[in-house]
Design brief:
single chain; 6 helices; about 150 residues; elongated; binds zinc ion; about 45% helix; 2 domains; two-stranded antiparallel sheet; mainly alpha; 3-stranded antiparallel beta sheet
Length: about 150
């Protein structure tokens, strides 16, 4: 399509609500002259997404917005997006907000999360075991006490 070169960022031409003409408001934003509906070109879409999701990767932006990674990288190169390091976009730890390269938590919080998870599993397991023990009319007694009880019962 010949339009492609002119319409690199899918600039909206008509209001999707009322079909009226749009006025460019800056930073990828367009406002309908008639109903005031706001529309965005690809840059505006990516910018909005970045504002709401700080520190996401190019891959994540691409998946969320449907705009190609190369297009996003091109925007980054053109400095149309406000990201300090144009080659690498970081994720942020969900717990402390520290910059990370993958996953949901930084190593420190990952450990805490894993420990909390392990504790939860251990508790669930212990409860389950106690339920089973209750069926045998015996408490999970340890060592001598358990042995004595065992002997007494036989
Ligand atoms: Zn409109
Ligand atoms: Zn953290």
């Amino acid at each position: 399509m010949a339009e492609l070169s002119l319409d690199k960022y899918h600039t909206p031409i008509r209001c999707e609500v009322c079909g009226d003409t749009l006025t460019f408001m800056g930073v990828g934003e367009y406002k309908c002259d008639k109903c005031g509906h706001l529309m965005y070109d690809d840059y505006g879409v990516v910018r909005n997404y970045l504002e709401k999701n700080k520190g996401v990767t190019v891959v994540e932006i691409s998946m969320a917005t449907g705009i190609s990674q190369s297009q996003i990288k091109q925007m980054l190169k053109e400095d149309r997006l406000e990201i300090s390091d144009s080659s690498r976009v970081f994720l942020r730890c969900e717990a402390c907000g520290k910059e990370i390269k993958s996953g949901r938590y930084c190593p420190a919080c990952e450990q805490l999360a894993a420990a909390a998870e392990a504790k939860k599993r251990a508790n669930a397991l212990r409860e389950e075991r106690q339920m089973n023990m209750a069926g045998f009319k015996a408490n999970p007694l340890k060592g001598e006490e358990g042995t004595r009880r065992f002997k007494r019962e036989h």
